[in-house]
Automatic annotation (TrEMBL):
GO molecular function annotations of the record: ATP binding
UniProt name for this protein: Conjugal transfer protein TraB
Pfam families, sorted: CagE_TrbE_VirB
Keyword vocabulary terms for this entry: Membrane, Transmembrane, Transmembrane helix
Occurrences of domain CagE TrbE VirB component of type IV transporter system central (ranges): 20-171
InterPro entries: CagE_TrbE_VirB_cntrl_dom (IPR018145)
Residue stretches spanning the membrane: 138-160
Amino acid sequence: DRIREYIMDNRPVSSLWGDVVQIRTVDHNFYTTGIEFREYEEDTEPGQLNMLKEADFEYLLTQSFSCLSESSAKTFLTHQEKSLQETRDRAQSQLAQLGTALDMLTSREFVMGYHHGTVHVWDNDQNAVQRKARRVKVMLTGCGVVGGTISLASEAAYYARLPGNQKWAPRPV
């Protein structure tokens, strides 16, 4: 199926409190749910998500990155630094890292931004789709990523899968 045919013939319906979205098409219904990336290991590497390739079910991995402007990133880091100082936080290593990050940001050694990552699975049965989602969470943990159920933002995450819809990303990290 081509995406132009698929999108025009379905209607996503989500419940107010659920994480499963029902997709109603002309001739049948199916269900989808997503797992979002919540946290990562300190170091990442190419191929880190390769374990997902071993899944015995179909899934859709969506990722996007939106850069912050240099001034917004500096403001963010400065506020974080001031917050730690004002609360007399004992995390001296974090303060040092924030100073280093500000220096590296000013030197343009890296950029800051928001990463959005989700893995969507689908099935004809609602319980089966939830089982697949739990398996995805376990696989992501094995890849060094903490995954979480999207829940209330499930419909937004569904639309964020499409190109140009970054504004619908549920909770960018």
